[in-house]
Amino acid sequence: MNGALLHRHGRLLDRLGQRRVGMAGAGEVFRGAAAFRDVQVAERWAGYIDATPDAVPVISPVDSIPGFYIATGFSGHGFGIGPGAGKLMADIVTGVTTPVVDPAPFRYSRFIDEGRLRTA
């Protein structure tokens, strides 16, 4: 697969393909805007967007692994909702009886139904 990884839900994580697409897009910018024509790329960066099947983050303990907590699935919005998510996670981990918001919509277990992944 030339450096590609097949995600178990069918997504293809192709590092080489992403590099080609990124450089093709940069090439369009370089050709289309005179100010960028002589620019040399010194560094490039890309990351994956983590998303849950229902597009709602998981901020929750994992009941099957005592003491394990997870905060993921922010789908690129982590910088914006990170402070609130961090506060909610702190409330969950420390056992605050009235968390900053209702944690139920963010629970990991919403995807578990008799061992099968459930999507909304």
**Taking all residues together, what is the mean pLDDT?**
78
Q: H/E series, N to C?
A: EEHEEHEE
Rg, alpha carbons: 20 Å
Number of strands: 6
Shape: elongated
Helix content: 25-40%
Number of helices: 2
Structural class: alpha+beta
Low-confidence stretches: 1-8
Largest sheet: 2 strands, antiparallel
Strand order of the largest sheet: 1-2
Strand content: 15-25%
Terminal Cα separation, in Å? Answer: 32 Å
Summarize the structure.
With 120 residues, the chain is an alpha+beta fold.
Question: What is the topology?
Answer:
Blueprint: E1 4-6, E2 12-14, H1 15-32, E3 58-61, E4 69-72, H2 78-94, E5 112-113, E6 116-117
Antiparallel strand pairs: 1-2, 3-4, 5-6
Structural features, described:
The chain is elongated, with a radius of gyration of 20 Å. The model is unreliable at 1-8 (pLDDT under 50). It has helices at 15-32, 78-94, and strands at residues 4-6, 12-14, 58-61, 69-72, 112-113, 116-117. It has 120 residues and is α+β, with helices and mostly antiparallel strands. Helix content is 29%, strand content 15%. The chain starts with a strand and ends with a strand.
List the keywords.
120 residues, alpha+beta, two-stranded antiparallel sheet, two-stranded antiparallel ribbon, 2 helices, elongated
